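Could someone model tryptophan with this protein?
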Amino acid sequence: MRVHLNRVTSGMRPTGRLHIGHYHGVLKNWVDFQRRYECLFFVADYHGLTTHYRNAGDIEQNTYDMVVDWLSAGIDPQQAVIFVQSHIPEISELHLLLSMVTPISWLERVPTYREQQEKLSNLDLSTYGFLGYPLLMAADILLYRSNYVPVGDDQLPHIELAREVVRRFNSLYGFEQGFMENACEAARKMGKKSFSLYMNLRTNYQEKGDKESLESARALVSEQQNLTASDCERLYGYLGGCSREILCEPEGLLSENSCFPGTDGQKMSKSYKNTIYFREDLAALPDKIKKMPTDPNRVRRSDFGNPDLCPVFQFHKVYSTSEVQSWVNDGCRSANIGCVDCKKALSGNMVEGQKLIHERAEPFLRNPELIRNILSDGCERARSIAQDTMRDIRSSIGLSTKTFLP
Ligand code: TRP
Ligand code: SF4
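Reply:
Sure, complex below.
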């Protein structure tokens, strides 16, 4: 068993071309994470099917469009592992195994379950697959032994479910007679100095809930060269419980800025028809900005405005320099500038920014084979991690023991 301390995994359903709300809410963070963590980013096509099983024909094109967006945003296949969920057969196996130990009531009480059923009442979501949506997501996270999972706040209950499933799974399949003694014996194998450090860190974590101690203790264990996989599982497990740790508990990383406004001031979303695409048609962009509503109290050019009540200003905050932002802020409040000028400045800046994105997308659009290669390389890398995890899981459950394998 190889344990990682800084692996980040996240997925996106293949909804097709992304909009700038996705970029500012999610993608920008991914680009940042890939420099600091070992990252796995995947297209959650099975998750797409849980709701859109009637429109399965769109999945391939949507996957392609979305991955082109990721790459144009700066996700780098040299730094992050990029792949498609359904290309990894182990995901189905883990989902199945987790389904054996997950009470139905845990899934029924996940808030998104009823909410989405009501909201998307045209889709008929009274299916087995839809109920299992968060469990499949748990499998995505656990299969790669992920430590961190960047998500929006609506997805946090799913992370919590994954953590509960981990605890249940470990206590079921990591249980062993004489665990405490075995764990202490394993700790002694690290040598006197590391033994007492480990024990101190453990006490610190257990008595004071000090997370840093937990992380240091985990790091200490991961550095040991002479421990067996089972001993490592014992030492990780002993830090917080009384069973071996087969699967590790992930933590959610909440993304800020996940509520980027649309061109009408509501949250940007395809269903509100208020989006600007991440790779927007450069000719259409100024028109979309022109039609944006402004501060409702500023009816005439001579009225004083309040940029804080205007979605155009929210856009300036991410697309314009601080000088331009002050120009808008002062000019709007004193009625020295009109909304037309204000919007013109904005669309100029946005068009400039978009040119770069179109440039980056161009080679992938010209040669789709590039995307294929990136995804197949990513699949290979993700799969090797997945196979490693599944080997441990199968053996801890007692499936396919050596006696029966060919
Ligand atoms: N459910 C996530 C969403 O809708 C997508 C997703 C699927 C995901 N599997 C995941 C996100 C695993 C993080 C980790 O946004
Ligand atoms: Fe909005 Fe700009 Fe008009 Fe002020 S000047 S109301 S910020 S569009």
